[in-house]
Design a protein that fits this description.
The complex is a heterodimer of chains A (265) and B (287). Chain A has 265 residues and is an alpha/beta fold. Chain A has one domain: P-loop containing nucleotide triphosphate hydrolases (Rossmann fold), CATH 3.40.50.300. Chain A has helices at residues 2-9, 50-58, 93-98, 112-124, 140-153, 170-185, 220-223, 226-233, and strands at residues 10-21, 24-35, 39-43, 65-70, 76-79, 158-162, 189-194, 206-211, 213-218, 238-242, 245-249. Chain B has one domain (19-281): ABC transporter involved in vitamin B12 uptake, BtuC. Chain B contains 14 helices and no strands. In chain B, helix 2 (18-43) runs parallel beside helix 7 and helix 7 runs antiparallel to helix 10. Classes of the chains: A alpha/beta (265), B mainly alpha (287). The interface between A and B is medium-sized, with 27 and 29 residues. The structure holds adenosine-5'-triphosphate and magnesium ion.
Chain lengths: 265, 287
């Protein structure tokens, strides 16, 4: 009985998943379970296989070993990296949002019901009144939210985001973080990847540290520790605490430290 | 008064000829059809594919002319097969894919030219394919252009959102359940058919221009995909119609005039729409 409840709770379960391009394995023997209502981030250095693992979860690439089980009929809302979007493409915010719906009807005009539903999602994300804008004519934070809105339009069970804060400024990062936290509070499950340890990862309930293999899996307090970070990045790192949260100091990438007589912390 | 009446009569004069009426009708539909498919060609940065495909089809057309084979069947099979293959090669982004496509399609074109030199009796029909011969259109050409135009319109209207989604954002489209490779194959087949049926009207050498100019012009005029989808065919059809008439009165090549009218429209819009309009073309890459 209890088992059944637990089963229904599992959205995605990766079982010894290995992914490869050609002969080169880039994700190796990964196991993790994602339950309904979770908010998890995959962190790791560049080229560690974060995007690849995300694509495997999304089903756009097949693992060469292992299996990925999903809740039957699971609906995923995918938000791509903003850098991968062609901002010059001739579409308005409304056109982007209703794009995911391709139900059977012969004339493609956006119906009043679709428009109302889209306006509703936009309103919820603080984008009210922008539906007629071209996607280029928006701020960075608004652009990011349009794609979140598109993912939400189909009422997904889980939101999947690839690097939602890369290439955006500090303010936009805050906007995105708050938006995701609000959605999570409202019951949405979220899986994302990020490079940003302090700005984003440290704020999430769960981090999966990936460097081809899973190095650690747990809360920021558990995994953002020097041992794990050294394994993850292959370089020693210091961790401070600020306001009850871990702050990772990255020495290896700061050649200026000590140059002008400044002291390493 | 008198002279303007004469002028008006003169403008109507070519319409007294059956061949001109047929030619104008075919050019009008061909222009609209190229404008429609051109939207996808331009937005996907596939203009080199349109160019390559028209050259590949020329080889097929020449071969069928020499072998006395029906043009639509011979060049059609050749065109659709090369279209789907080129689409698949280009999609996988294999390094050097564009060079490979260039080499193969140019070779196909060269083969066509060689056949043209070697076999005199097929020369006329091959030349028509090369330069286009709007005034020599047969009933079969009219029917073929009409069939493809209706087919393309129906397919694009019915698959509107899937075509839009897989053009704008193929990766997310795939995850959302759109069969992106199927949509791309469908586009390549329609593009091949379009090139096939408009080739004898516009000519191999100018067809890729008719695939690009109306769509690029439309892009500067609007920021909406849905509008681009009717503005571009409208520009294509109007250029064809005007070009035909100008060609008659100036005694020049119809297909050349169609392209020149289109290019003038492009130029006017380019300078008329200012920096904003021009910026919209930024994503086209190389045209
Ligand atoms: N389409 C591909 N074909 C071949 N190799 C690839 C492909 N995509 C990624 N790779 C390789 O797989 C490895 C993992 O890439 P992936 O994009 O998953 O890393 P990532 O952790 O998302 O990196 P980043 O943080 O830079 O986005 C890298 O070494 C990359 O070079
Ligand atoms: Mg990545």
């Amino acid at each position: 009985m209890n088992m059944k409840v637990a089963e229904k709770d599992v959205l995605v379960h990766c079982h010894h998943v290995t992914c490869a391009y050609g002969d080169v394995a880039v994700v190796n023997d990964v196991n993790f379970t994602l339950r309904r209502g979770e908010f998890a981030g995959i962190v790791g250095p560049s080229g560690s296989g974060k995007t690849t693992l995300l694509k495997a979860v999304l089903g756009s690439i097949a693992p060469v070993h292992g299996s990925i089980d999903m809740l039957k009929g699971l609906r995923m809302g995918y938000v791509p990296q903003v850098e991968s979007v062609d901002w010059n493409f001739p579409v308005t915010v409304l056109e982007v949002i209703v794009m995911t719906r391709s139900e059977k009807k012969w004339w493609p005009r956006i119906t009043a019901a679709e428009r109302a539903a889209a306006e509703d999602v936009l309103e919820r994300l603080g984008l009210g009144g922008l539906s007629g804008r071209h996607i280029r004519e928006l701020s960075g934070g608004q652009q990011q939210r349009v794609f979140v809105a598109r993912a939400l339009f189909h009422s997904p069970d889980i939101l999947v985001l690839d690097e939602p804060t890369s290439g955006v400024d500090v303010r936009t990062r805050h906007e995105v973080l708050h938006l995701l936290a609000d959605l999570h509070d409202a019951g949405m499950s979220v899986l994302l990847t990020t490079h940003d340890l302090n700005g984003l990862a440290a704020h999430l309930p769960r981090l999966i540290c990936l460097n081809k293999e899973i190095v650690a899996d747990g809360s920021p307090r558990e995994v953002l520790v020097p041992d794990v970070l050294e394994k993850l990045y292959g370089a020693p790192m210091h961790v401070l605490e600020h306001g009850g949260m871990p702050v990772v100091l990255d020495h290896s990438e700061n050649p200026m430290v000590g140059r002008f007589g400044g002291k390493a912390v | 008064m008198h002279s303007s009446l004469m002028y008006a009569l003169n403008l109507g004069e070519p319409y007294g000829f059956q061949f001109f009426r047929n030619g104008t009708f075919v050019a009008l539909i061909a222009g609209g059809l190229c404008g429609l498919l051109g939207v996808f060609v331009v937005l996907r940065g596939m203009s080199y594919i349109g160019h390559g495909l028209s050259h590949a089809v020329f080889g097929g057309a020449a071969a069928s002319a020499v072998m006395n084979f029906n043009y639509f069947i011979g060049a059609g099979i050749w065109g659709v097969v090369s279209g789907v293959l080129i689409g698949r090669i280009a999609r996988r982004r294999i390094i050097g894919a564009d060079a490979a496509i260039g080499v193969v399609t140019t070779a196909s074109f060269a083969l066509g030219l060689a056949l043209l030199n070697r076999y005199g009796q097929a020369k006329r029909s091959i030349e028509a394919v090369l330069f286009g011969s709007v005034l020599g259109v047969k009933n079969s050409d009219i029917i073929a252009v009409l069939v493809v135009a209706v087919l393309a319109t129906v397919v694009i209207v019915l698959g509107y959102r899937k075509f839009l989604f897989s053009t704008f954002d193929p990766e997310v489209a795939e995850v959302s359940g759109v069969k992106v490779s199927f949509m791309e194959a469908a586009l390549m087949v329609m593009l091949s058919l379009t090139i096939l049926v408009t080739m004898r009207v516009i000519g191999t050498l100018l067809i890729s221009a008719l695939l690009v100019i109306p769509a690029a012009t439309a892009r500067m005029l609007t920021n909406r995909f849905s509008r681009m989808l009717w503005i571009s065919p409208l520009i294509g059809a109007s250029s064809a119609f005007l070009g035909m008439n100008v060609a008659y009165h100036t005694n020049t090549s119809a297909s050349a005039m169609i392209i020149l009218v289109g290019a003038s429209a492009f130029t006017c819009v380019y300078f008329g729409s200012g920096v904003r309009g021009r910026r919209r073309m930024a994503s086209f890459g190389h045209l």
